[in-house]
Every structure is written in C-alpha cells, then in structure tokens.
Design a protein that fits this description.
The protein is built from nine helices and 18 strands. The chain has helices at residues 41-49, 97-107, 113-116, 128-141, 157-170, 187-204, 215-221, 239-244, 249-254, and strands at 3-12, 15-25, 30-34, 56-61, 64-68, 73-74, 82-85, 175-179, 207-212, 224-229, 232-237, 259-263, 266-270, 285-296, 301-308, 313-320, 329-334, 339-341. The strands form four sheets. It has a six-stranded mixed β-sheet, with helices on both faces. The protein has a five-stranded antiparallel β-sheet with strand order 2-1-4-5-6, covered by helices on one side. The radius of gyration is 24 Å and the shape is globular.
Length: 344
C-alpha cells in the first residue's frame, strides 16, 4: 500500500506539532520517521492511522483518500486497513496470547464496546477455526508457536513485543505503523528484535512506517528515512544518502557523528572516520590541532582535537588506531571528496 500525505498540519493550542508536511512511501517500503522527541513524528503516524485528526491537508492510502480537510473526509481508523504496534505492548493482561492476537479478528466486524468484549462469539463470516488458523500463522511468523495459552505476565519483554507484532499482522493489514516499538527493551534485545522485525516485514511484503529517535535503528532497518525536526521533514533519502550527502546541518549531526565546522568561510561537514594521520595524495586537505581528549572505544580511539584557523578555534573529532598523548600536536588529512558543504 502506498502512503501519500500532502500538507498535513496539526496544532495543539499554540503549539505546532506538524507544520505543512508531505511524505510519499512506496508500496512494500520500510520507511522510518527519525527525529528527537517532540519533533512531530508520532503525530504524523497517528494522523495516518486515524487516531489524530489533522487541522489541514490530505492523506491517501493506496487508492483511497482517507483524510481530506477541504472535502471533510475522515475515514475511521478501523476502515483504513492499518495495523498498529505501540511502544508499551498494549496487551490485555487477563487474556492469553491466543486471545490477544485473536482480538482484532474477532472485533473486526463487531460494533460497539459490548460487542467487542464478547470474545467467544466468532466474527460474522469467520469461524473459530478460521480465527485459530490465522492466529497460529501469526504466532509462527514471530516465532511464538507453542505460547498461545500463556498470559502476558508469563512472557519476557521481547516475547510481549512479538505478541504485539503478531496481533498487528493477524488481521492482514496493508500497512503497518510502528511507534517506537523497541524502545522499552534493553540494548542487546533491541538489536536482536530490530533484525527480526525488519526480516518479518520484508517476508510478509507489507508497507511499514516506523517511528524512532534512534538513528542506528533507523539506519539498520530502513529502505529510506525521513528526518524530522520541529514539526517538519528536513530530508528524505536512503541511509547512505543521508549519511554521505546531508542537505541540512541538523541532518548531518543527527545521522551519525560529524564535524560541523567553518572551512574557508563555508559551512562544512567532515565525518570523523574520514580523517587520517597519513597523506594519500597532494590534493588532501590538512588540519593541525592539539589533542584535548581521548576515549577508548575498543577497536579504536576517539580523539578530540582543538584546531585553530584564521576564523576561530574549532573542536574536531576523529578516530585513530593508536592513543595520542594529551597536548600532542597532530596533523590530520582528508580527501576533498569527503568534505561535504551544506547550506546553513
């Protein structure tokens, strides 16, 4: 399912949550909305899901216009063909894993809260066998076959998140929206789960829009990333494009580590790993500085240099194979091809 948002705006009183925002996601893509807390990424996700009503703009999912402010179109969330995965798992603690995953299937065609709570009643047009087969399929996809009769309190954090994934895909949505689903997990488990989730989404062939403030998570999982700040999308591109050719100083500093410096009067970005101790060609640029700080990172040292120029003193970060002495003067070299200039 394709996603197209055009000029989406959202305010909460005097606070601008989303400035006019447009985004296009191709069918089958895994796209991340990346940015700091409060930048508008969750508001945009909730607007697409139908959980927040924008103040202006238009949203199209596939060939269906689900929101148009001018035409007063606002399709209900349950009719948008969307699956949602939340940060806090949102599992019913009194239900088994099977019942949690089956909830959406049973509630799909029911109306009103009393009907939603009649879990023993099959959805019209669906038998209990159909529901059971679909739940089994979803649990197998997330590697939880055999856990159907356990309760959420009997599961680990990673297993609970897998249940929430299973519940989201069980209804066969055309679009999966994920709101920081891994942030409640510890670092090691988060890395394991992002590999599993990325593989699962691609195996199913579903379009996914993923909200995160973790740039390494977005870089590892996404086909493309939309970097957001202060309610706006600053740049959209592949992880390689954003890292190597940032169009904005914020993007340069938010995606990876950067030396954002003034060079010959222009706003310039040099990645720390591009700086080296040896000169390779006569065209290399040379920078001499004094070692201010070092940090051991395992396979290398992170070194902070104070570099003086005719404009100002600047602090540069580089990665070196050996530890220099504090106060030592070093000359570092970089290829002109690895120097990227942006508009400030």
């Amino acid at each position: 399912m394709e996603i197209r948002t055009e000029g989406i705006e959202k305010r909460y009183g005097e606070t601008v949550a989303l400035a006019p925002t447009s985004l296009a996601v191709r069918a089958g893509e895994f796209v991340s909305l990346l940015g700091p807390s409060g930048c508008g990424k969750t508001t945009l996700l909730r607007s697409i899901a139908g959980l927040a009503r924008p103040d202006n703009g238009r949203i199209t999912l596939g060939d269906q216009v689900v929101f148009d402010h001018n035409k007063r179109i606002n399709t209900a969330p349950e009719k948008r063909g969307v699956g949602m995965v939340f940060q806090d798992f949102a599992l019913w603690p009194h239900m088994t894993v099977f019942e949690n995953v089956a909830f959406g299937l049973r509630a799909r065609q029911q109306r009103g809260l009393p009907e939603l709570l009649r879990f023993r009643q099959p959805t019209p047009g669906q038998t209990e066998k159909d529901i059971a087969n679909r739940v089994d399929w979803a649990l197998q996809k997330v590697r939880l076959a055999g856990y159907a009769q356990r309760y959420p309190g009997q599961l680990s954090g990673g297993q609970k998140q897998r249940v929430s994934f299973a519940r989201a895909i069980a209804t066969g949505p055309k679009l999966l929206l994920l709101d920081e689903p891994l942030s409640a997990l510890d670092a090691i488990l988060r890395e394991e789960m992002r590999v599993e989730l990325s593989a699962l989404v691609r195996e199913i062939g579903i379009t996914a829009l993923y909200v995160t403030h973790d740039q390494s998570e977005a870089m590892a999982m996404s086909d493309r990333i939309a970097v957001m700040n202060e309610g706006q999308i600053l740049q959209t591109g592949t992880p390689e494009d954003l890292y190597n050719r940032p169009a904005d100083p914020f993007v340069a500093t938010f995606i990876g580590r950067s030396n954002v410096v003034s060079l010959n009067g222009r706003y310039t970005i040099v990645r720390p790993e591009r700086l080296r101790l040896n000169q390779v060609s006569a065209a290399d640029l040379a920078f001499t500085g004094t070692v201010r700080q070092t940090a051991f990172l395992g396979e290398r040292y992170e070194v902070v240099l104070s570099v003086s120029s005719h404009e100002e003193e600047q602090l540069w970060t580089s990665y070196l194979p050996q530890k220099p002495d504090l106060g030592q003067e070093l000359t570092l070299y970089v290829s002109p091809d690895d120097v990227h200039q942006v508009t400030k």
